[in-house]
User: What shape does this take?
Amino acid sequence: MLLYRAPLTRKVNNLHPVLLSGAHGMCLLLLATIVGCSLRTSTVQLTPAARAELDAILTTLQVRYDLTGSLNTQMKVTIEEGEQREELRELLWYKKSEKGGELLHIQAMGGFNEPRGVAIANQDENQFLLRLLNEQRAYIGPLSDGALREIFGIDLRVSDVLSAIFANPFLDERTNGFISVESSGTKLTITRPGVKAGHIEIVTLFVREGEPRVTEWHIHDENGVLQQRAAFSDYREVSGILRPHKVEIERPLEQTRVAVNITKVELNVEINNSKFDVAPFLEGDIEIIPLSELAE
Assistant: This one.
């Protein structure tokens, strides 16, 4: 999922990030409602039994990620920004490399399947590329959280993109220091401090037959204002691994909403490493902009 926004110093036209899925992630991008409530900063001490139950759920989510060596996905993406609405088709390739890095290639196409943009994140080569095909422009530089922020203009981390792709907010290993853990039947609600000072995140899961499903992930600022919401639904089993087939990402303050419908997904298929090579997208008469220039 690719959510494009204008960079801080140069305008990137006609593209938006998801989520991340996003993006922001696209990326992609993420996250039950506490507007008007005061923020709590103290953490909860779980009983050994409750901690063991929670750890089993987190382990199941982690195992789904560990068992996914590669991913090939086709998506229909609807982007609403204010009163504007646009539909795209996106292709996503993900692979864990032999060197231990993670490789991602996302291609966006317009309503008539015309190529619009390509994003490649290659941890092995420490490279990030955003190529705008209809503008003959490419942004390239080291892969980092800072680079994603410069391009997309929002707080976006590499781990946020993976979290959106795998419907797992805990891939950044923030699995301790929870503010609260509330259980009601099959529903589990986890509140934890956000990455940014004063922010909090609320993650909602449903557990059925031992299989957890992350359904919502909200991020609120220090005033309780919703910054981002991600919803995951239509879970189906693919090659023995449970995955959502519908993702919705909303950023209310920016009046942006992205709906993603997965039309095809394949797990653990062979993907050649050349799919994550940035060189073919830097050929020809195009403007190449180093990411370092965006921060100047």
In short: The chain is about 15% helix and 40% strand. The CA atoms of residues 220 and 227 lie 5 Å apart. The longest strand covers residues 84-96.
